Amino acid sequence: MGRRGLLLGAGVVVAGGAVAAAVTLWPTGDGGGEGTRASESASAGASAGTSGGASPSPSRNYPLSKAPRTIPAVRAHTAARGPGWRPASGARVVVNDDGLADEGKLLAGELKMTYGGRAGARAGDVELALDGKGDAESYTLTVGEGRVRIAGPGQSGVFYGTRTLKQEVHGGGTAPEGVVRDRPAKPVRGFMLDIARKHFTAGWIEDRVRELGDLKYNELGLHFSDDQGFRIESDTHPEVVSEEHLTKAQVKRIVSLAAERHIAVVPEIDSPGHLGAVIDAHPDLQLRNAGGASASRGTLDISKPAAAKIVDDLLDEYAGLFPGSGWHLGGDEYQALTASNPAASYPQLASAAVKRYGAGATIADLTTGWLNDRAAVVARHGRTPRAWNDGFYRSVKKAGVSKDVRVAYWTGKEYGARQPTEYLAAGREVVNYNDEFLYYVLGQPQTFVYPTGERIYQQWTPRVLRGTTAVPASYEDRIRGGVFAVWCDLSGAQTQNQVAAGIRMPLRAMVQKLWDPGKPELSWKEFQALANRIG
To answer: Where is the composition biased (Low complexity) (predicted)?
Structure first.
């Protein structure tokens, strides 16, 4: 992996009356490359300082600080001499903008400090500030003169700075003197949960949101419709909803909690396959072959206008429940296309394809048109759609998937799957869901095995989209990031608590690679020990 260009910058930190001059190598650019986490510091003399509002001790000398140990690791740290900072009695969290009130109140509660609102910072305080221009997820965390300042151009970056501080002082630790400059390499850092095949309680999902927020994830995917269940309350089609489901009130609380932690919730209603729960309530929409036999369960007959209407009703309804910018349309594993002769097996689909696209059109064209139509529905609500890579069919003759649809690349094993470089070379943006590393499939059916954090940490990067081979570095900027997915194929294989324990280290390993895809400084054992220490 090629190293990005480096920006050489000088920093000066004042701590307790003395100055430490530091030179920091700061990575430039938004995409991949290894980044530079090291800092070179030269002392200009010993210094004394304050900690949590304590009086200065002019006679005390301090060693040059070391970079904080956090997950994910910070990208750059300018060292300085001083005592560092930890929360103390009477210390406050203050803000320079009312828009940071939620972040300030959350941090104050976590560190058992007082929230002081908009006020000037004094010794012992933490100040949160909107300041500067650039990546909204970037931030600067400065520890000096007995106080902390976390600043960034956007609220999300300031929030991530509070997560760094929270980890630094966890268990009585001290935030080291100096300046952290930090930002993510990838804009999509996600976790996807299959709540269709297995019902997860709202409380369990909320706990995952808190965990994800502390790790600087910014996306939670909810796959809530499949053959085994439809798990969110519906007003337009209550007949499709499973007995065990989340109410809209519960979903709103999840979405609100996620928003407080700068996590967008991305819903998925997969179609035109994986709709068994919907078809159970509308059996006339089940696809049947020329002999009247049903295709695989959950396969919709997309030649029928009623099929589009029910799916679009649901998409329109849930657009009001999920306010984020992303939407997953599924689009994978449409079983009509796995027949040896799809047109002969499903003549109604073949006829509909010709009617829509003209002579020579195929069922793959009709299926692609279906995906484009659903993409248009969510686009009307201001959403950016994505679909599974095997929903982009090679065999199309007349239709092509809209350029606005991002590729969720998960496998090379399915019908119609292509190499990831084909999508990247065509200019598409891709999100990495590589099933070799990022699929936690309950019960380990077929060839799936539970992924380990160690393997992700040592072998995976965002460029490893399929199998174990990375795509060329020239495609780095088109890879939006990655998503770790829990699928519940054998729903009884693990309890909720077992799932939480099983995904704990994979989530930490993956976010480290999404924040900085370069080779980590810590060994796996050191990383594991750090995770155990900071929680």
So the answer is: 36-60
